[in-house]
Amino acid sequence: MLIDSHAHLDSERYAEDREDMLRRAKAAGVEAILSIGIGDGPSTMHRALELAREFASNPDMPRIFVSAGIHPHEAALADTAALEKLNALAAEPEIVAVGEIGLDYYYDHSPREVQAQAFIAQMEIAAAHKLPILIHCRASADSTNAWDDTLDLLKEHWRPTGLGGILHCFAGEGRHAQEAMDMGFLVSFAGNITFPKAQPLRDAAVKIPADRLLVETDAPFLAPVPNRGKRNEPAWVKNVAETLAVVRGTDYETIALATTANFSRLFPAAQG
Fold first, then answer.
1. Is 197 buried (19+), middle (13-18) or exposed (0-12) by CB count in 10 A?
2. pLDDT per position as a tens digit, 172-186
3. Domain tally for the chain?
């Protein structure tokens, strides 16, 4: 059993074969997926929830859990109406987390101070609903600036809640992972851990305690080797788990069991 802890199932790239894609995931041993509800911005962040409800009773599909949030790329759109919409979505029973939220200094699609404000506002909503958060963090080239700022904001605004969350598609340094784990976060690795030039990621993965690991696809992005360059899909989270097993000197079954248990601990709804 595997759980894909981060996939964008509502992507338009699945418009022609979404149901078949989900069946392939189930056939590959993926029993659950966390569907990320950011849409193309706040106006469509409800689509992941609608999709989860559409497939909820289909035994041929993985279980679908759902988040909702405003990505830092669209932070400038996090106005009162958007935050009220997020607050309403967070009250829905299928929503298990707020995210992905955080800071992105690589593209800077929204001003950095606006990203920070949207991040803080969404942490407040998550805290009010007692939901974990899913962190997106991407630094500018050859820098750790976004990671440093993210950890500072988490320490000030999130650590007191004790709710934890996930560092999605981790690409920071070991010290960033440790600081986040000290606040109750799990660390998730995506398909880029399989890339030939990703040795720093593989080195970081070795040092994460087994009870803090997660695997994800970030589908439809970041398809792992041997499918790099193609549209990613949740069935391929197995390649991520297999790579983690190799770099950590263990076996696939151990990684599958550990990451599934870790997800279920953070999201008790997954235990049912």
1. exposed
2. 999 999 999 999 999
3. 1
